[in-house]
Amino acid sequence: xxxxxxxxxxxxxxxxxxxxxxxxxxxxxxxxxxxxxxxxxxxxxxxxxxxxxxxxxxxxxxxxxxxxxxxxxxxxxxxxxxxxxxxxxxxx
Length: 92
Known about the structure:
The protein is an alpha+beta fold. 42% of the residues lie in helices and 22% in strands. The chain has three helices and three strands; from the N terminus they run αββααβ. It has helices at 11-27, 45-54, 56-67; strands spanning 28-34, 39-44, 71-77. Strands 2-1-3 form a three-stranded antiparallel beta sheet. Strand 1 (28-34) and strand 2 (39-44) form a beta hairpin. It starts with 10 loop residues before the first helix and ends in a 15-residue tail after the last strand. This is DUF4342 domain-containing protein. Keywords: Membrane, Transmembrane, Transmembrane helix. It comes from Sphingobacterium paucimobilis HER1398. The chain crosses the membrane at residues 43-68.
């Protein structure tokens, strides 16, 4: 038995998708650290993307340093668990 899934493209779906993307970009940070774990730089992801677009040579140099295993670049985003108090049932 086959299951059919339909997804409609409309203004609400596209707008909410773009808003979710911008929200996740705003909440994310780029962390540059050494391979041993010493943190050198932490900046918002949007600034890192702008630096990469305006100064592409910085992105090329960073990619080379990553490939040579001199630095480690991580994208970090904290996810907050939302617990609805009305739906939570405590068991004892």
